[in-house]
Amino acid sequence: MATLLRSKLSNVATSVSNKSQAKMSGVFARMGFQAATDEEAVGFAHCDDLDMEHRQGLQMDILKSDGGEEGAEPPLEGDIHYQRDGTGPLPPSASKEAGVCSELSGQGKPKITAWEAGWNVTNAIQGMFVLGLPYAILHGGYLGLFLIIFAAVVCCYTGKILIACLYEENEDGEIVRVRDSYVDIANACCAPRFPTLGGRIVNVAQIIELVMTCILYVVVSGNLMYNSFPNLPVSQKSWSIIATAVLLPCAFLKNLKAVSKFSLLCTLAHFVINILVIAYCLSRARDWAWDKVKFYIDVKKFPISIGIIVFSYTSQIFLPSLEGNMQNPKEFHCMMNWTHIAACILKGLFALVAYLTWADETKEVITDNLPSTIRAVVNIFLVAKALLSYPLPFFAAVEVLERSLFQDGNRAFFPNCYGGDGRLKSWGLTLRCALVVFTLLMAIYVPHFALLMGLTGSLTGAGLCFLLPSLFHLKLLWRKLLWHHVFFDVAIFVIGGICSVSGFIHSLEGLIEAFRTNAED
């Protein structure tokens, strides 16, 4: 009897604890500070191969699941996740993919508010790559500041027109949502002659951006550690190898549950670091070098700065899913306005204040300019954030590659890399490890944060944020557009194309030169 009583008391205590945790998570979710687990963000990308944030700090809000049968315990916040082996909890759907997509589509689930959606967009465009913006001011002066404002306005506008491409007018004259993702929009533009071409182009751009983001995390980890401990007999390449050794277990990931627990903490820590940098710069306001900020550009290096600035604003890739999960989609435009205005102000102030403090000595990663007394502490936090952020773009890139090359039914190029029991085959694991090693090799041979960031922004950032949205808008809705919308779309396409080509060429030249230099050494 005593044993039975103790067992019942233990069960009651466990139940109360679980309910308390679920309630606390719900409170934070309603406040807009509860970010979804990273595997849910990858779930969005899994539904349409696109909707995910490889930017630094992106976290989609949790959609709480409904309670089960009467008396059953509701699942805890963050417990719902996608597992390759099929062992994870799935909704009552016929297939894994249908289950994941139906869960994330918001049917029967609470949807996010405009404030929560704004928090997600802010995470996407206020990531740790903001640390490279002062370097853009170094080569662009006041024109660099203007470009930060211009990029915010254009990215806000293209985000809105991209969402407009999801809707069409039905026979009754009502505007209805007929598409769900960036891929759907791209395929609709290429139909009927090439119904899947657009989606494949967008997927290739996404994979490039995700892999380049992984490389940037390895580069910035090696750079920060090397500059934090310059007296140690360890080179930047060696620090990159050490960082990659820590990241190698990412090849074994089935989901991101373990990493997701640290996501919100890392994002908040990054905001604190930005505030610390600004506070230090303000403490040296008397020494600011206003005379160094001029109306001139470095013709050779400024195009690289364009890519850096554009890359820091990219969020279009996950906007369709975000808008589809809002309680009131009509608030999407207002949300885009205030998030991009806030980002523009914060980025402009951060870049200008940091550049005024260090002027011509501004480095690619601005924290490297901090005094040695606080540099090590700040950089270690940034390295921890970079290492914990790496699994998300890596896992999303693996998902897209596996679905496109190994699991696309009869259209797959290679045999399925998963066995009948859902386990990853040995050669599939080898390919994952090879992808991790590839990011290391790129980081070793091209350890230039600004060049890589500029190349990525010029190639995929400008394409996904400037060129494709304006092109799709003209193609799908040109009969209903007013003349000024047509003018804006054409202007953005032309200007974006020029900036993209110019930035790509100069970044590529810099990377080739850096690659040759490192090869000779």
Can you walk through the features of this model?
It is a multi-pass membrane protein. This protein has 521 residues and is an all-alpha fold. It has one domain (129-520): Amino acid/polyamine transporter I. It is 64% helix and 1% strand. It has helices at 2-31, 38-48, 96-104, 114-125, 133-164, 182-190, 197-228, 236-247, 257-260, 263-283, 302-311, 319-324, 332-358, 372-389, 391-406, 426-445, 449-477, 483-520; strands at residues 167-169, 175-177. The protein has a two-stranded antiparallel sheet. Helix 7 crosses helix 8 (236-247) and helix 11 (302-311) crosses helix 17 (449-477). The radius of gyration is 24 Å and the shape is globular. The model is unreliable at 12-108 (pLDDT under 50).
State the main characteristics.
521 residues, membrane, mainly alpha, Amino acid/polyamine transporter I, 64% helix
Q: Could you say which overall geometry the principal axes of the C-alpha atoms support?
A: globular
| Estimated share of beta-strand residues | under 5%
Question: Helix and strand succession?
Answer: HHHHHEEHHHHHHHHHHHHH
Assign the CATH architecture: Up-down Bundle
Q: What structural class do helix, strand and pairing data support?
A: mainly alpha
Number of strands: 2
Helix content: 55-70%
Distance between the termini: 77 Å
Average pLDDT across residues? 75
Radius of gyration: 24 Å
The top-level CATH class is Mainly Alpha
Q: What count of structural domains?
A: 1
Count of individual helical segments? 18
Uncertain stretches of 5 or more adjacent residues: 12-108
Largest sheet: 2 strands, antiparallel
CATH topology: Amino acid/polyamine transporter I
Query: Strand order within the widest sheet?
Result: 1-2
CATH superfamily: Amino acid/polyamine transporter I
